[in-house]
Automatic annotation (TrEMBL), chain A:
<comment type="similarity">
    <text>Belongs to the V-ATPase V0D/AC39 subunit family.</text>
</comment>
<comment type="subunit">
    <text>V-ATPase is a heteromultimeric enzyme composed of a peripheral catalytic V1 complex (components A to H) attached to an integral membrane V0 proton pore complex (components: a, c, c', c'', d, e, f and VOA1).</text>
</comment>
<dbReference type="GO" id="GO:0000329">
    <property type="term" value="C:fungal-type vacuole membrane"/>
</dbReference>
<dbReference type="GO" id="GO:0046961">
    <property type="term" value="F:proton-transporting ATPase activity, rotational mechanism"/>
</dbReference>
<dbReference type="InterPro" id="IPR044911">
    <property type="entry name" value="V-type_ATPase_csu/dsu_dom_3"/>
</dbReference>
<dbReference type="GO" id="GO:0007034">
    <property type="term" value="P:vacuolar transport"/>
</dbReference>
<dbReference type="InterPro" id="IPR035067">
    <property type="entry name" value="V-type_ATPase_csu/dsu"/>
</dbReference>
<keyword id="KW-0375">Hydrogen ion transport</keyword>
<dbReference type="InterPro" id="IPR036079">
    <property type="entry name" value="ATPase_csu/dsu_sf"/>
</dbReference>
TrEMBL record, chain B:
<dbReference type="GO" id="GO:0000329">
    <property type="term" value="C:fungal-type vacuole membrane"/>
</dbReference>
<feature type="region of interest" description="Disordered">
    <location>
        <begin position="179"/>
        <end position="222"/>
    </location>
</feature>
<protein>
    <submittedName>
        <fullName>DNA, SC113</fullName>
    </submittedName>
</protein>
<keyword id="KW-0406">Ion transport</keyword>
<comment type="similarity">
    <text>Belongs to the V-ATPase D subunit family.</text>
</comment>
<dbReference type="InterPro" id="IPR002699">
    <property type="entry name" value="V_ATPase_D"/>
</dbReference>
<dbReference type="GO" id="GO:0045121">
    <property type="term" value="C:membrane raft"/>
</dbReference>
<feature type="compositionally biased region" description="Acidic residues">
    <location>
        <begin position="213"/>
        <end position="222"/>
    </location>
</feature>
<dbReference type="Pfam" id="PF01813">
    <property type="entry name" value="ATP-synt_D"/>
</dbReference>
């Protein structure tokens, strides 16, 4: 059924994104990139895929400049897709930008808390997380004002409501604010793809549920692992876990009680996938956090899994989920290229193969 | 002190090479962070850092009278300002990178104390060298001149003294000779008178001078 009318409104968007997907770098490209001796060579190798965007770079640019230009291309393409989208697809795409908005707001709140000139912060904001009222955040001088007059107007107001008040913004560590927002965002997004009449019972619901559940689980596991040895209490930690996903509720409960790596790996053993990750990186060895035998860390494993899932999304049709998948793939590509460029710039070739390529 | 300098230069060399290695590892760990987090977290970390976790204490060492500052680094374990950074993703990398950079800063501190010591010692050695030169080329010759002058003066005085003594002894000899001659003459005159008395024996007791007489005493000349 969903195929019947999907293309009337969103066929173009999907087509465009499928075109973008074909321009993603393949294993062959990465092979060529790893052979490069200088950043200029990297730039040359990227020229077919990135073309004009890299042309403005000076000779031998810094890796961050390179990454910046690559992000610019992603942003430009995404904006184009966004302007083409209508109706529920447009809403779906807007949801994609909320994650970046959360980062931007966290950045601005940090700036406001330390009474910095928030104007200079605007330059640091991620362009995808830009929304009309973002510059207005700069006007606010204190947190209460920020919350009452500015955040209320943003698309994220709903995420603040109920879980964060302006008192919290003062005291809480900004990381907790950010993760609370992100949790609410993920839950809202999950709710959206599962209940919206245009998406319910379509491939979008299936695909996005899977992806978002994975994202939720990944966050829960990461938050647990990263909170060891910090002042984050178990109750607070539990509040940061998204309330869906494969691990919810039993796994989340076990995670919230976990004290060490072993209890975490016990908690995630509900899901065969995550268990396999933990086994692979050998987290039970205690200190072996950083990586297993092949130098892959748990984060790498998660990225790898995410990329594989994103790749599979393209086998489905009639769904805007391909945009989500494409953005994830593109971001990973930018990270990969940055990593390779970094390795080349620092002459650390032995770990240059530590990137994730799925095509 | 000059024994300390080669030792310090050797250690500076070692520390610099170590710094090169450590900084490379540190920069690479930063690359790992940016790979894992997928964005720039620099600003966030700058803002959330409130207290220094890594601190430096300065002490003073005494190397043959020269006070050398010596820096000691230590970590304040209780302070963990951005422990939550990268909570969602990349936290491990952030912490690892922090440890690597802490090691890098440790090396820098070590290098700093060595270099300061080196600079100060260098300065001190220069000052000492200047002093040595000044003493060698100015003060010693000047003192030597003075000594020479005093010696020559003393010689002069000696010579004068000698000459004077010679003069005095000459004069004394002359006086003695004159006195001798007079005595001789007197004795000869007395003998002559004796001879005359023997010739005219009834000569009244020799003319004991009539002290109370009219003739005056001869003036005594000193």
């Amino acid at each position: 059924m969903e195929g019947l009318f999907f293309n009337v409104n969103s066929g173009y968007v999907e087509g465009i994104v499928r075109g973008y997907r074909n321009s993603l770098l393949t294993g062959q490209h990465y092979n060529n990139l790893t052979q490069c001796e200088t950043i200029d060579d990297v730039k040359l190798q990227l020229a077919p895929a990135y073309g004009d965007f890299l042309a403005a770079l000076p000779p031998n640019p810094s890796t961050s400049a390179l990454a910046g230009k690559m992000t610019d291309k992603l942003v430009a393409e995404f904006r184009y897709v966004l302007t083409q989208a209508t109706g529920s697809t447009a809403r779906f795409l807007e949801y994609l930008t909320y994650g970046y908005m959360i980062d931007n707001i966290a950045l601005l709140i940090t700036g406001t808390l330390h009474e910095r000139d928030t104007r200079e912060l605007l330059e640091r904001c991620h362009p995808l997380g830009w929304f009309e009222t973002l510059p207005v955040l700069c006007v606010a001088t204190n947190i209460e004002e920020l919350y009452n007059s500015v955040l209320i107007e943003t698309p994220l107001a709903g995420y603040f409501k109920g879980s964060l008040s302006h008192q919290d913004l003062d005291e809480l560590n900004i990381e907790i604010v950010r993760n609370t927002l992100y949790k609410n965002y993920l839950e809202d997004f999950y709710q959206f793809v599962n209940t919206h009449p245009d998406f319910k019972g379509t491939p979008t619901q299936e695909v996005m549920s899977e992806l978002l559940e994975f994202e939720a689980d990944r966050r829960a596991i990461n938050i647990t692992l990263n909170s060891f040895g910090t002042e984050l209490s178990k109750q607070e930690r539990r509040k940061l876990y998204p309330e869906f996903g494969k691990l919810y509720p039993e796994g989340s409960l076990m995670l919230s009680r976990a004290d060490d790596l072993e209890s975490v790996s016990l908690a995630v053993s509900i899901s065969a996938d995550y268990k396999a990750f933990f086994d692979a990186v050998g987290l039970t060895q205690g200190a072996g956090f950083g990586g297993g035998a092949d130098g892959k860390s748990l984060e790498d494993m998660f990225y790898q899994k995410e990329m594989e899932m994103s790749k599979v999304v393209f086998t489905r049709q009639f769904t805007p989920a391909v945009v989500y998948a494409w953005m994830r793939l593109k971001e990973q590509e930018i990270r990969n290229v940055t990593w390779i460029a970094e390795c080349i710039a620092q002459h650390q070739k032995e770990r240059i193969g530590n990137f994730i390529s799925v095509f | 002190m000059s024994g300390a300098v080669p030792e310090i230069t050797r250690r500076i060399d070692e520390a610099k090479q170590k710094m090169g290695r450590v900084m490379q590892i540190a920069a690479f760990s930063l690359a790992e962070v940016s790979y894992a987090v997928g964005g720039d977290i620099g600003y966030q970390i700058q803002e959330s850092a409130k207290q220094a976790r890594f601190r430096v204490r300065a002490k003073q060492d005494n190397v043959s009278g020269v006070l050398l500052p010596h820096f000691e680094s230590y970590t304040e374990e209780g302070i963990n300002d951005f422990g939550l950074t990268g909570l969602g993703k990349g936290g491990q990398q952030v912490q690892r990178s922090r440890e690597t950079y802490a090691r890098a800063v440790e090396t820098l501190v070590e290098l700093a104390s060595l270099q300061t010591a080196f600079v100060i010692l260098d300065e001190v050695i220069k000052v000492v060298n200047r002093r040595v030169n000044a003493i060698e080329h100015v003060i010693i010759p000047r003192t030597e001149n003075t000594i020479k002058y005093i010696m020559s003066e003393l010689d002069e005085v000696d010579r004068e003294e000698f000459y004077r003594l010679k003069k005095v002894s000459n004069k004394k000899q002359r006086d003695i000779a004159a006195a001798d001659a007079e005595m001789e003459a007197r004795r000869a005159a007395a003998q002559e008178k004796e001879g005359q008395k023997a010739l005219e024996p009834e000569k009244e007791a020799p003319d004991a001078p009539d002290v109370l007489g009219e003739q005056e005493d001869a003036d005594v000349i000193f």
